[in-house]
Design a protein that fits this description.
Helices cover 34% and strands 25% of the residues. With 271 residues, the chain is α+β, with helices and mostly antiparallel strands. It folds into 2 domains: 151 residues, 2-Layer Sandwich (Fructose-1,6-Bisphosphatase, Chain A, domain 1); 109 residues, D-Maltodextrin-Binding Protein, domain 2 (3-Layer(aba) Sandwich). Strand 5 and strand 6 form a beta hairpin.
Length: 271
C-alpha cells in the first residue's frame, strides 16, 4: 500500500528533525494559540509543512486536516478521503524538556475512519504503524525490524478497572471541570492513573500493552486518528464516552479508547 509507505517515510524523516530541534529547544521560537498554555513552535509548523508537501506530491486530490493554521478544519464531507496530521502532539512536553513524551501522528481516513496510520515517538526512536485489517506494529527503539515493520502489537487481557493503568488527560482549563466531574469515579476506581499530556503516547501505550485505557472529554480528529487505528488493530476498542461509535469527522467530543476488556466498565463509571 503506497499510502503506508508514505506514512512510514514522513514519520522517519520528521523524527530526525524533531530530535535535532529537541536537543536545541532553548533556541526554538514558541508562541501561544487559543490561550497561553496552548503552545505552538516553529518545529510544529516545519513538520506539518513537510508532511503536507509530501502528501500533496503523491495524492494531490486528497483533502488534508491538520492541527496548525488553515488546515485545522474538519471536512464538510464526513466520508471523504482525508489525511489527518498532528505534527507534534505533546508540544508542552517538547518545550519543557524534562519529560520527552511527544509524537508525530499521520493517518489516512476514508469513510470517517482511519484505514492507514502511524505515530513516531522521536526520543525513544519508536515508530508505530497500522493498516486496517492488517494489524499494528512497533519498530525502532531497540525492537528488531527483521520481521518487516517490527513487532506485532497486542493489548493486555486485563479485565478489571481496579487492576488497570488508565490515562485521564486533564487537557486545558476550559475542559478541566468537565473532566473532574465525568471521570471522578474512574480516578477513584482505577488501579493506577496517568497523564502524559500527549494523546499519541497514551494510545501507543495501550496498543503496546503498557496501559489499559485513555479518557478525554474533548479531542480533535488529528489528536487520535492514527492512535485509534493502532489500538484497534492491536485488539482494543474505541468509542465516544457514552459507548457510541467514534468517527473522525462527526463533530463529537469525548473519546474512550481501551484494551476492550474494561471498556464497558469504564463507560459505567463515567458520569
Amino acid at each position: 500500500m503506497k499510502e503506508m509507505a508514505l506514512i512510514e517515510q514522513v514519520l522517519k524523516a520528521t523524527s530526525v528533525l524533531v530530535r535535532e530541534k529537541y536537543s536545541e529547544r532553548a533556541s526554538v521560537s514558541v508562541t501561544s494559540k487559543s490561550e497561553a498554555n496552548d503552545l505552538l513552535t516553529e518545529v510544529d509548523l516545519a513538520v506539518q509543512e513537510y508532511i503536507v508537501e509530501q502528501i500533496s506530491l503523491l495524492f494531490p486530490d486528497d483533502l488534508i486536516a491538520a492541527e496548525e493554521g488553515d488546515f485545522a478544519n474538519i471536512p464538510s464531507d464526513p466520508d471523504c478521503r482525508c489525511w489527518v496530521i498532528d505534527p507534534i502532539d505533546g508540544t508542552q512536553n517538547f518545550v519543557r524538556g524534562l519529560f520527552p513524551a511527544f509524537g508525530i501522528s499521520v493517518a489516512l481516513a476514508v469513510g470517517g475512519t482511519a484505514v492507514a496510520g502511524g505515530v513516531a515517538l522521536p526520543i525513544p526512536r519508536d515508530i508505530f504503524l497500522a493498516e486496517r485489517g492488517a494489524g499494528a506494529f512497533r519498530s525502532g527503539g531497540g525492537f528488531s525490524e527483521a520481521a518487516g515493520r517490527g513487532r506485532r502489537l497486542t493489548v493486555t487481557q486485563t479485565a478489571e478497572v481496579g487492576l488497570s493503568r488508565i490515562e485521564i488527560d486533564f487537557s486545558g482549563r476550559r475542559e478541566r471541570g468537565e473532566t473532574l466531574r465525568r471521570a471522578g469515579k474512574v480516578v477513584t476506581t482505577a488501579g493506577q492513573i496517568r497523564c502524559n499530556c500527549a494523546t499519541v503516547v497514551a494510545l501507543c501505550s495501550i496498543a503496546s500493552g503498557d496501559m489499559e485505557a485513555f479518557v478525554h472529554v474533548a479531542l480533535n480528529p488529528w489528536d487520535y486518528a492514527a492512535g485509534q487505528l493502532i489500538v484497534e488493530e492491536a485488539g482494543g476498542r474505541a468509542t465516544r464516552l457514552d459507548g457510541s461509535p467514534l468517527r473522525l469527522f462527526d463533530h463529537g467530543r469525548g473519546v474512550l479508547i481501551t484494551n476492550g476488556h474494561i471498556h464497558q466498565e469504564v463507560i459505567s463509571l463515567l458520569e
